[in-house]
Amino acid sequence: MYIHAYNENPFNISINAVIGAYLERETDNVLLVDWADLASKPYWQLLPKLKDISKVVTKTLDRLVELGLNLNTFHLIGFSQGAQIAGFIGKSSKHTLPHLTGDKNILF
């Protein structure tokens, strides 16, 4: 599962590069959390919404696990504010996420 950065959308080259690398292996499925509508808003407006986004994704992830998703092969990746969302998901999920990667860039 990939969670994009602030001011990104699913059509960014960087997102396609990461997803493409996983898909080239032909053994992986990729879920992209598209929060572009909020990610395009002014920074101060989106910060209070990060936990709200994580709650929705956590609920979805927990449901996928109930339906049979194997967390041993699951990798949660977040970039920039997507990493903050990923951290909130890891903290609030009913399940232990064995692979969580966050990369935080600096805006200023």
Automatic annotation (TrEMBL):
**EC number(s) given by UniProt:** 3.1.1.32
Give the EC class as a word. Answer: hydrolase
The record's GO CC annotations read:
extracellular space
Molecular function (GO) terms for this protein are: phospholipase A1 activity; serine hydrolase activity
Q: Keywords in UniProt for this one? A: Disulfide bond, Hydrolase
The Lipase domain covers 1-102
The keyword Transmembrane helix is assigned to this record: no
What is any Pfam family matched here?
Answer: Lipase
User: What's the superkingdom here?
Assistant: Eukaryota
Which reactions is this enzyme annotated as catalysing?
a 1,2-diacyl-sn-glycero-3-phosphocholine + H2O = a 2-acyl-sn-glycero-3-phosphocholine + a fatty acid + H(+)
Q: Which InterPro entries does the entry mention?
A: Lipase, TAG_lipase
Keyword Transferase present in the record's keywords: the answer is no
Q: Which family does it belong to?
A: Belongs to the AB hydrolase superfamily. Lipase family.
Q: What is this protein called?
A: phospholipase A1
